[in-house]
Design goal:
Chain lengths: 118, 141
């Protein structure tokens, strides 16, 4: 019976990265913290910190055996272009990422969450 | 049936006998020792070289830059892999933007084992573009 328990640890729903759940967490956090606010140089630091903090707290609550990396980029809209890319060396069966691009009238927000199985 | 009590009392001896005289030692590394840790001091020059090599004298061009962005991440990841850091998983993120006087802020937070995991970042700027590259190294137990 010990061996059967060990097999279950390998691939259950609980220990794989769920893109949908994480995507909802990110969208809620950004809506909550920024919403319809107008870009303000003084507040940007606070916004990025709050968005990330909220994401990390919700991710912890999922209770999955993952290490998380959360990044947040906020850019003022003024016609300039922006490109982002990411490349990962990981175990593609257990690890995953979720990248959300969000915008309101005055700024772009890109949040990415990478989940790496322990 | 009489063997069972003997087995529980002296399991190590029995294992050793089963391996025909080989020594049983715990050699699987569960924490990186200092030399094999992902140290920012070792990894930063790698990223810096890639950025300087590929971006000096480049101007922001909306078609070419997205391809360039992807190439940079792959290049940085390949060089970090080549530099050792066994047992580490890598996540590399690169953002390239046009310089037009707009405000930008990028932040990150990680939920990990701060003893074995670390990150390294570099920023490159010229007159027409700015580039932020971050590489995270996460130890795989």
């Amino acid at each position: 019976s010990f061996k059967a328990g060990m097999d279950n640890l390998e691939a259950t729903d609980e220990s794989s990265f769920s893109v949908d759940e994480v995507s909802n967490i990110i969208k809620e956090s950004v809506e909550d913290v920024i919403g319809t606010a107008h870009y303000s140089h003084n507040k940007v630091g606070q916004w990025t910190s709050s968005v990330i903090e909220q994401c990390v707290n919700q991710l912890t609550r999922l209770g999955k055996p993952f290490k998380y990396i959360v990044t947040c980029l906020v850019m003022q809209k003024n016609g300039a272009g922006l490109n982002t890319a990411s490349s990962c060396y990981w175990d593609s069966q257990t690890d995953g990422s979720c990248i959300i691009k969000w915008e309101n009238k005055s700024m772009y927000v890109i949040v990415s969450v990478f989940g790496l199985a322990v | 049936m009489q063997d069972e009590p003997v087995a529980t009392e002296q399991p190590q001896q029995q294992q050793q006998q089963q391996k025909e005289g080989e020594e049983v030692a715990n050699t699987y590394v569960i924490r990186p020792n200092f030399e094999s840790k992902f140290r920012p001091l070792l990894a930063k020059p790698v990223i810096h070289e890639v950025l300087v090599e590929r971006l000096t004298d480049k101007a922001y061009d909306k078609e070419a830059t997205s391809g360039l962005c992807k190439e940079l991440t792959d290049e940085i990841k390949a060089r970090l892999r080549a530099n050792g850091f066994e047992r580490y998983k890598f996540v590399v993120q690169v953002a390239i933007g046009e310089q037009r006087g707009q405000g930008v802020k990028m932040a990150c937070r990680c939920l990990w084992d701060s003893d074995s995991d670390n990150y390294v970042q570099d920023i490159f700027m010229n007159d027409s573009l700015f580039c932020v590259a971050v590489a995270f190294g996460v130890f795989h137990y």
